[in-house]
Structures are given as structure tokens and as C-alpha cells.
Design goal:
alpha/beta, 3-stranded parallel sheet, 1 helix, 6 strands
Length: 88
């Protein structure tokens, strides 16, 4: 393989990973008891949703970004804990 072809492939992968570094969506659904979920996202325009049913569930969402991110946690049952942190 020529050196130019290798360099072109590396540059292509680098630009692709930069393009997908934001605008992420994460969805978590857990049914039952004693479930744990933690979602962390960085960048702009991210969305995170966690849904848990049952008892003694824990859910957390952390978003470090600067523009238009959304987060939601829905829980049905007893003894559940939830926390959402969004930082600019």
C-alpha cells in the first residue's frame, strides 16, 4: 500500500470521528428491580432518555455540552433514585 493511500485513509477516519462527536441519542429501558443506569454525553445537541419500572432502581444522566441537549428520566415503582446533571 502506498504511503499516500495510508495517509488518506487516516485523514478520512479522523474527519469522520469528528463529524460524529455530537448529536448523539441514548435510550435505556430497564424492567424489574435493582437496576442501575448511567449515561454520559459531551458535545452539542445530545438527547438521553432512561425509563425504569420496578423497585430500588438508580438512574443518572450527565451531559457536558454547550447547546441544545435534552435529558429525561421516568421511573415507576418504589424506592427509585434519579439525577440529571447538565453542564455548559
Amino acid at each position: 500500500m502506498s504511503k499516500r493511500l495510508v495517509m488518506a485513509a487516516v485523514a478520512s477516519l479522523a474527519f469522520t470521528s469528528i463529524a460524529f462527536a455530537q448529536s448523539n441519542t441514548a435510550t435505556t429501558v430497564q424492567i424489574g428491580g435493582i437496576n442501575n443506569s448511567f449515561t454520559a454525553q459531551s458535545g452539542a445537541r445530545n438527547a438521553a432518555t432512561t425509563v425504569q419500572t420496578g423497585f430500588a432502581n438508580n438512574a443518572g444522566i450527565l451531559q457536558n455540552g454547550y447547546k441544545s441537549s435534552s435529558a429525561a428520566i421516568g421511573q415507576a415503582g418504589v424506592f427509585n433514585n434519579a439525577a440529571i446533571t447538565q453542564r455548559r
